[in-house]
Amino acid sequence: MNPEAVFPPFGLRIEAGPMVLRPITDDVLPLLIDAALAGIHDPAFMPFTTPWADASPEDLPMAVAQYHWGVRARWSPAAWSLELAVEWEGRIVGVQAFTTENYLVTRTGETGSWLRLADHGRGIGTRMRQAVCRFAFDHLDAARVTSAAFTDNPASLAVSRKTGYRPNGSTWHARRGRPAEMRRMVLRPEDLVRGEPITVEGAGPFRRFIGLEE
Known about the structure:
Number of strands: 9
Shape: globular
Largest sheet: 9 strands, mixed
């Protein structure tokens, strides 16, 4: 029995021009760790609610590996996170995720991502978000997709606007010991800026795996 039969997310592949969203298998993990070690954000700024990228170069590889192993171990129909490595022109440069709870009822998921600092400002962030949203709406029957970013993270908020998300309130979080406002965003199918066409492999087995009928 192959890994895709045991864990169908391993069989997913989403292509959009020079970009591929591919499963984070153990052979991809070292490449992903290299991308994280190259730097994700300015050390003076923290874009994440959990400051995992603050880990030392000695600790970061294990932290990244343990996180993705944990995602697989915790997967259940009630709560799951689809984590896909972003491959741009043959190089692994980041992660695009779609996380949800009670998906069969809510048909709602939250996007989250990170991208190697050297690849910021090239439009990759927008394209990877558009691709995963197209996949959610066109292949997973999503009704809405949410996202969030701190108000001092204009690049992430710009990606949301370019993709078609609309404002959906705000929340406050503790960040490095200080309060920080997070802007909530929501995207509906009719508002999606679809971007480059996508081709998808493995959608059928993944749909069955999460409980959607063919």
